[in-house]
């Protein structure tokens, strides 16, 4: 008989709990993930490739990539600016500002789309003016970009704020007092310090930008080959009972999701390493670590 | 409202630029659009607003939305606690992989989750066929909505509990054990009160996300008015009938609910942080309180 520590559960409890946890995760996470690929290849690889080579699928992918490419620079600029002001300076109304930055997370995606219809739609505040000047925002790319900007608004900022707060002002102040200009300090001190946190926020924002459904669906108008993003393309095919086509497009998105998970895990690991190095009082940086993905070991 | 920073922060540049950019971007992208929505309801009298917000169909949609969200959040609270506990405390092969997988719902586009779960839980699906034999119908019923919401909100409870369980000091459990408590008594009387605020925060985050969710739900819900129609879908169907005012009225109801949830989450985190701070006079609550909605926290 083995001796059990007084602060550990009996073996059967541990096995039971582990079984329940893994069973739950298998049922709700692993099984759907398998099912996406299974359904897509249900009629063989040939049908799968045909579905992906479809011109509407191609233009949907292109549109999804375009939106992400337009949205991410805005997210980065805003995230860095907001985190700089909030983390490095004291001012009144700071916690109100932080709460307002979180606001888009609390708003339903459908409402996020609707607010831009209210502003720019045909019956909206600027609708007639836009129509008179022949500017299309709703049911066109600008509206979809705006809706995506709204739903991805907090991601980068809320990764960077706690990180830059923890890092404090010392290094930047040293750079300035040694005669660096503002931008020199920013590029040589701040950016290297926040690069992994920034990367983390960008990964999350990108996943949301490429996968967003509700908000984009409201403003897109679902014009085939023109304003259909990949998630909307999935919906249309699914509603037409085109299982293969819908799931083939879905595998592309699922693959992006998996890449996101891997990238996120790698960045988390890098961030943990760097904090450990800082707390261990080793010279930060320069103790170059192997960059490969495969080395994720404790 | 946002005066210049105190003198002692004066060394670092970029406060005006950072804050100015942040406030401009926030105002243009978030505050003006949300304000526009409130302004739009100004076209209604209070009575008219109330009439739209309390039609039989609207009330039924609130019941479905809130009921399913509550159900899903409770399921995730129970299983999330078990998953978090197992991931922190018990060693098992593939643990890192399982841990990374928990974030899948944040990375997988909701439309993909929606069509996959609808296929899995349909009467001839992998899971649905077994449930059908028991006489349980999931897809195209309110129960389907619950399944979709469990998937979408799965990471919240796990991710808020994990760091808190990691931080439990071994001495606490040892003391309880040496004073003669059984393992169950230690858990219920000593550990549970400690992790309760985080647990409640995770639950509220999951609930608040579930209320607004759209993409994953519509594929599996069946969307029958009065039975399985969620409020975001009702907003969209009003929009498709060119009833912008009606859609806006319902959206305002949802927005108010989001505000209340956001406030509640902030209060909960403030409470949790304060409790924590009192215990070991760690960092003041301010440092932890502002960040409200934890999206994919490591």
From TrEMBL, chain A:
Q: Where is the ABC transmembrane type-1 domain?
A: 61-268
Q: Where in the cell is it found?
A: Cell membrane
Per the UniProt record, which residue ranges are transmembrane? 12-41, 61-87, 99-125, 137-157, 198-223, 243-263
Q: How does it sit in the membrane?
A: Multi-pass membrane protein
Per the annotation, which location comes first and is thus the protein's main one? membrane
For this UniProt record, give its keywords in alphabetical order, as a comma-separated list. Answer: Membrane, Sulfate transport, Transmembrane, Transmembrane helix, Transport
- Which Pfam family is an annotated match for this chain, by its short name? BPD_transp_1
> Which PANTHER family does its entry note?
SULFATE TRANSPORT SYSTEM PERMEASE PROTEIN, SULFATE TRANSPORT SYSTEM PERMEASE PROTEIN CYSW
Summarize the subunit comment: The complex is composed of two ATP-binding proteins (CysA), two transmembrane proteins (CysT and CysW) and a solute-binding protein (CysP).
Q: What does this protein do?
A: Part of the ABC transporter complex CysAWTP (TC 3.A.1.6.1) involved in sulfate/thiosulfate import. Probably responsible for the translocation of the substrate across the membrane.
Q: What name appears for this protein in its UniProt entry?
A: Sulfate ABC transporter permease subunit CysW
Its organism's taxonomic lineage begins at: Bacteria, Pseudomonadati, Pseudomonadota, Betaproteobacteria, Rhodocyclales
TrEMBL record, chain B:
One Pfam family, short name please? BPD_transp_1
User: Gene for this protein?
Assistant: cysT
Q: Which CDD domains match?
A: TM_PBP2
Name where it's found.
Cell membrane
- Any idea which UniProt keywords this protein has? Membrane, Sulfate transport, Transmembrane, Transmembrane helix, Transport
Subunit structure, interactors included: The complex is composed of two ATP-binding proteins (CysA), two transmembrane proteins (CysT and CysW) and a solute-binding protein (CysP).
- Full protein name: Sulfate transport system permease protein CysT
Q: Which NCBIfam families match?
A: 3a0106s02 (TIGR00969), permease_CysT (TIGR02139)
Q: Which PROSITE patterns match?
A: ABC_TM1
Please indicate which superkingdom the organism of origin belongs to: Bacteria
UniProt membrane topology term: Multi-pass membrane protein
Q: Supply the Gene3D superfamilies for this chain.
A: MetI-like
């Amino acid at each position: 008989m083995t001796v059990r520590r007084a602060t550990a559960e009996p073996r059967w409890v541990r096995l039971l709990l582990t079984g329940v946890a893994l069973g739950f995760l298998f049922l709700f996470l692993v099984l759907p993930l398998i099912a996406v690929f299974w359904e897509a290849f249900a009629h063989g690889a040939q049908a799968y490739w045909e579905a992906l080579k479809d011109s509407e699928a191609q233009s949907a992918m292109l549109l999804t990539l375009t939106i992400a490419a337009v949205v991410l620079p805005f997210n980065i600029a805003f995230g860095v600016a907001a985190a700089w002001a909030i983390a490095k300076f004291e001012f009144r109304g700071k916690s109100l500002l932080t709460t307002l930055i979180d606001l888009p997370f609390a708003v339903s995606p459908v409402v996020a789309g609707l607010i831009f219809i209210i502003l720019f739609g045909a019956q909206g505040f600027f609708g007639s003016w836009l129509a008179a000047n022949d500017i299309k925002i709703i049911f066109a790319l600008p509206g979809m970009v705006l809706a995506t900007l709204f739903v991805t608004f907090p991601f980068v900022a809320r990764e960077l704020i706690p990180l830059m707060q923890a890092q404090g002002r010392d290094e930047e102040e040293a750079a300035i007092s040694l005669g660096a200009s503002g931008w020199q300090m920013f590029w040589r001190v701040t950016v290297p310090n926040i690069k992994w946190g920034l990367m983390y926020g960008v990964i999350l924002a990108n996943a949301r930008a490429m996968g967003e459904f509700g908000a984009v669906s409201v403003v897109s108008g679902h014009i085939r080959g023109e304003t259909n993003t990949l998630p909307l393309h999935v919906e249309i095919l699914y509603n037409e009972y085109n299982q293969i086509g819908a799931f083939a497009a879905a595998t592309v998105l699922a693959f992006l999701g998996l890449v996101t998970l891997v990238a996120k895990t790698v960045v988390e690991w890098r961030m943990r390493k760097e904090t450990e190095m800082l707390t261990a009082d080793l010279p930060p940086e320069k103790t170059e670590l192997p960059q490969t993905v495969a080395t994720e070991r404790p | 409202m946002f005066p210049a920073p105190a003198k002692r922060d004066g060394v670092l540049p970029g406060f005006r630029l950072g804050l100015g950019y942040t406030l401009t971007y926030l105002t243009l992208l978030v505050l003006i659009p949300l304000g526009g929505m409130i302004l739009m309801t100004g076209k209604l009298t209070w009575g008219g607003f109330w009439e739209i917000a309390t039609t039989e169909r609207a009330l039924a949609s609130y019941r479905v939305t809130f009921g399913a969200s509550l159900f899903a959040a409770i399921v995730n609270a129970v299983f999330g606690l078990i998953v978090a506990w197992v991931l922190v405390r018990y060693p098992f092969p593939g643990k890192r992989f399982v841990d990374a997988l928990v974030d899948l719902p944040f990375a997988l586009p909701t439309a993909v989750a929606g069509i996959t779960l609808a296929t899995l839980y349909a009467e001839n699906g992998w899971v649905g066929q077994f449930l059908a034999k028991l006489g349980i119908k999931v897809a195209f019923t309110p129960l389907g909505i619950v399944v979709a919401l469990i998937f979408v909100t799965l990471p919240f409870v796990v991710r808020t509990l994990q760091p808190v369980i990691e931080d439990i000091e071994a001495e606490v459990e040892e003391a309880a054990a040496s004073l003669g408590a059984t393992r169950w008594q230690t858990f219920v009387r000593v550990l549970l009160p400690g992790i309760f605020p985080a647990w409640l925060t995770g639950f509220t985050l999951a609930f608040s996300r579930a209320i607004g969710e759209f993409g994953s739900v519509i594929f599996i819900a069946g969307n029958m008015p009065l039975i399985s129609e969620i409020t975001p879908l009702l907003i969209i169907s009003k929009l498709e009938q060119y009833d912008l005012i009606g859609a806006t009225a319902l959206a305002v109801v949802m927005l108010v609910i989001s505000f209340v949830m956001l406030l509640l989450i902030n209060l909960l985190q403030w409470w949790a942080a304060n409790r924590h701070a009192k215990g070991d006079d760690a960092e003041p609550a301010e440092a932890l309180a502002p960040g409200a909605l934890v999206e994919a926290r490591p």
